[in-house]
Amino acid sequence: MSKQHPIIAVTGSSGAGTSTVKESFEHMFRREGIKAAIVEGDSFHRYNRADMKRAMIEAEKSNHRTFSHFGPEANLFAEMEQLFATYGATGGGRRRLYIHNEDEAAPFVDQGIGPGQFTPWDEIPQDTDCLFYEGLHGCIVTQDSNCARHVDLKIGVVPVINLEWIQKIHRDTRHRGYSEEAVTETILRRMHDYIHYILPQFKLTDINFQRVPVVDTSNPFIARDIPTADESLVVIRFRKPDRFEVDFPYLLQMLKDSWMSRRNTIVVPGGKMGLAMELVLTPILRRINEERQEARRSRTS
């Protein structure tokens, strides 16, 4: 970890609420005048979209039924740790983009880069104040790689498992054209890597935001709709509240209908998730930025 070149990692699967966290941080970065180097987890997938489909076919042929985007075989964990280590030491490092759709591809048309492809690796500018990672593996630890040890602020964003499945089933069947059987097979194939590489990260996170529906999600495969924010609660757990000097009375006052469920856990209405994130994270971000400025002054004095 580095006070001079801090790293913030938001870890969570698609649909978990990581986009809400990213938007909250963008607001905070703008208000606090912080220039962040943004790194998306998708950019450290090993394969582009076409190559991943071919790799999946080869995995099926070899009876490798646990191959998925969640595990080390489909990701560049060593390269990601190298980026974290380099940024923490120098404020630099290499990153690239994964192009998800036509809108994101528009600036790269002249380079022949389209949806499902990566941009070339490029150097991070030297004038950034922090690195902000958002994706599946911000706190990944394997036998060969340990990204978590380089991260100054680790944030987990995860829904309860049935809600995560409901979101995936609806997204893949309604917007990506997959059958329910194909989505079910994907969920089963990912389960090994989910248990061994996704879940263990949340015991390392400093703060977890977990969305919990208050409607019946007992069978996600027959759910007609995704529970809305107003049909959910958000459980916010601090691993070490004293480290961040969390002002729970202030949070309870500012977040209507919130309550403490444990000494290190506050529960807020789902519709207040974005506000809760900014109230919780702004003081922490300010402290990280102050420590960064002090570390840089000490180095130059």
Automatic annotation (TrEMBL):
Catalytically driven reaction(s): D-ribulose 5-phosphate + ATP = D-ribulose 1,5-bisphosphate + ADP + H(+)
PROSITE patterns from the UniProt entry: PHOSPHORIBULOKINASE (PS00567)
UniProt EC number: 2.7.1.19
Domain of life, per lineage: Bacteria
Pfam families hit by this protein: PRK
SUPFAM superfamilies (alphabetical): P-loop containing nucleoside triphosphate hydrolases
Gene Ontology MF: a single term: phosphoribulokinase activity
Keyword Ligase listed: no
GO biological process: carbohydrate metabolic process
Residues covered by the Phosphoribulokinase/uridine kinase domain: 7-218
Keywords: ATP-binding, Kinase, Nucleotide-binding, Transferase
NCBIfam families: PRK15453.1
Family to which the UniProt record says this protein belongs: Belongs to the phosphoribulokinase family.
The protein's name: Phosphoribulokinase
Native species: Magnetospirillum fulvum
